[in-house]
Write a structure and sequence with these properties.
Number of helices: 5
Number of strands: 16
Shape: globular
Strand content: 35-45%
């Protein structure tokens, strides 16, 4: 069989869907030189689209952003609670706030976890699960958050030692707070611990995530009705830097890269309500 192609055949193929590589192969089979084949390809391309615009004259706008990614690999899940039964002994209740915020109660069942109180309250649930390497993720699915409510997710040793991310709906801020031996770094009142956010990010139900990568702590928000990713980072801080170097010391008071430190912290989450009380509802936590 004669596999040779004439120039008319090549030109017809060039007007189809061939890419440059295939076209030049055909041009070679037809006896055309590489330069001639490339010239023919350019001629056909020029015939299809003509413009007097310079490259710098094009204008582009963002129509939509979508960056799906998972924060928590399935094989590394240590905690997954959909609150279908009573809490039992899976969690330890912590009260990091002042004495007047110790009045809240927590109940679970029917796929919901409810933080409630007639007055203001601040309640953290520390789980029995923790980390073995300086990488951690805690994700809470927030079903309902009133205007005066705050939600938390992070790592906790006790009421005087923790690092967490929070979203305060009343002030519309996302923050990162670290407390070491009773001394609070970052968080409310710190010029470095909080950022204002777009309230549209937290409209309706949402997922709020705390992520640690060595000493880098990140707070993210995601849509509650999407299984795949769509988390958006909101604030990031280095807790080793913030608890030491920024204070004028060579070393930080919190170093999550150290095994003897990290292994004493457990996955946790919680809620806080301003005076007047209110009910804050979660429907899942994963860590």
């Amino acid at each position: 069989m004669d596999h040779r192609r004439n120039s008319a055949d090549v030109e017809q193929e060039a007007m189809g869907i061939l890419d440059r590589k295939d076209f030049l192969k055909l041009a070679g089979a037809a006896g055309l030189g590489a330069a001639a084949g490339a010239g023919l390809l350019q001629a056909e391309a020029g015939a299809a689209v003509r413009t007097d615009l310079e490259p710098g004259e094009f204008k582009f706008t963002i129509r939509e952003r979508f960056r799906p990614f998972h924060l928590l690999a399935e094989n590394f899940v240590r905690l997954d609670d959909s609150f279908n039964s009573a809490l039992g002994d899976k969690y330890t209740k912590l009260r990091p706030g002042p004495a007047e915020e110790d009045d809240g109660s927590v109940s679970a069942g029917g796929g919901k976890l409810r933080f409630t109180g007639e007055n203001d309250y601040y309640t953290i649930l520390k789980s029995n699960t923790g980390q073995r390497a300086p990488f951690a993720t805690v994700i809470v699915n927030v079903a309902s958050l009133p205007e005066d409510g705050t939600v938390y997710a992070g790592l906790y040793r006790d009421e005087n030692n923790f690092v967490h991310a929070y979203y305060d709906r009343d002030r519309n801020v996302v923050g990162i707070e670290a407390r070491v031996n009773g001394v609070t770094y970052l968080g409310p009142g710190s010029p470095f611990g909080e950022d204002q956010v777009d309230p549209e990010e937290f409209r309706g139900s949402f997922r709020f995530a705390f992520v640690v990568n060595e000493n880098r702590v990140i707070a993210l928000v995601g849509d509650n009705n999407m299984d795949i990713g769509n988390f958006r980072p909101l604030i990031e801080r280095d807790v080793f830097f913030e608890t030491g170097i920024r204070q004028g010391r060579a070393d930080g008071d919190l170093d999550l890269r150290r095994d003897d430190v990290l292994q004493t912290y457990k996955n946790g989450f919680g809620a806080r309500s301003d005076p007047g009380g209110g009910t804050i509802v979660f429907d899942r936590v994963r860590a």
